[in-house]
Inverse folding.
């Protein structure tokens, strides 16, 4: 395989993967299986980077299970908040599918579970900054999500949402970070370029929000959040700061009434 063919192979795999997320998120299951079949064909056609296609295939199969489970609980006579929390917990299907992909190929699973090195200096384009300052800037930026609450006219409503917000925040931020910046980013980074890994995981992270009813344009904008979290993980070599920042954002979104 020439270098240009290899690049086309990777672009084709990413295109099939992302289109699969879109189709399955819209519950177009028949069409959604076509990208899976395409990835499976690529997987069989070459031995090069089979782990990438295997990862994409198993992710989409996990997403399929996630969608079926979500459709099932939508028939339950329970509160909307309970359905949302169950929906977020069903992200476990995707995570388990990714683990199965690694076990199948006997690859090591990495989650970036090391704690940040507080003495490390973070390289920037023209200078370096200390780890504590880098994390403080990230936290301050994430905390701007709470600004709309200053003009909230109903503090009692915000208080009533707190327990739901806490549950949603812990489930959603932890599961999404383990999937995208844990298994997906670390595995792709190990097998292909960092640019490819960051691009695919950031776009995939944004597009997966289609499955919870977020419009396409807004889902694509969420990809910038995925890019931010990926940079945080790569700079700190730890997933914990990105989980913390993600939790702050999710808490603010719920308390602002943007998730209900």
């Amino acid at each position: 395989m020439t270098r240009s063919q290899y690049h086309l192979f990777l672009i084709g795999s990413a295109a099939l993967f992302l289109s699969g997320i879109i189709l399955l998120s819209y519950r177009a299951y028949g069409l959604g299986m076509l990208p899976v079949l395409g990835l499976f064909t690529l997987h069989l056609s070459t031995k090069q980077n089979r782990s990438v296609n295997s990862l994409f295939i198993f992710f989409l199969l996990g997403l399929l299970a996630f969608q079926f489970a979500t459709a099932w609980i939508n028939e339950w006579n329970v509160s909307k908040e309970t359905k949302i929390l169950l929906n977020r917990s069903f992200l476990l299907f995707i995570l388990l599918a990714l683990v199965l992909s690694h076990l199948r190929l006997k690859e090591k699973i990495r989650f970036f579970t090391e704690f940040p090195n507080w003495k490390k200096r973070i390289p920037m384009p023209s200078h370096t900054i200390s780890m504590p300052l880098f994390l403080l800037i990230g936290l301050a930026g994430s905390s701007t999500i709470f600004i709309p609450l200053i003009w909230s006219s109903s503090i009692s409503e915000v208080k009533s949402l707190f327990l739901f917000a806490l549950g949603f925040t812990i489930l959603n931020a932890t599961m999404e970070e383990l999937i995208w910046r844990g298994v997906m980013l670390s595995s792709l980074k190990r097998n292909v370029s960092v640019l490819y890994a960051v691009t695919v995981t950031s776009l995939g992270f944004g597009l997966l929000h289609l499955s919870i009813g977020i419009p396409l344009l807004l889902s694509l904008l969420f990809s910038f959040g995925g890019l931010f979290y990926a940079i945080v993980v790569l700079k700190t070599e730890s997933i914990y700061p990105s989980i913390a920042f993600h939790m702050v954002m999710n808490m603010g979104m719920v308390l602002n009434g943007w998730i209900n």
The first helix runs from residue 3 to 25.
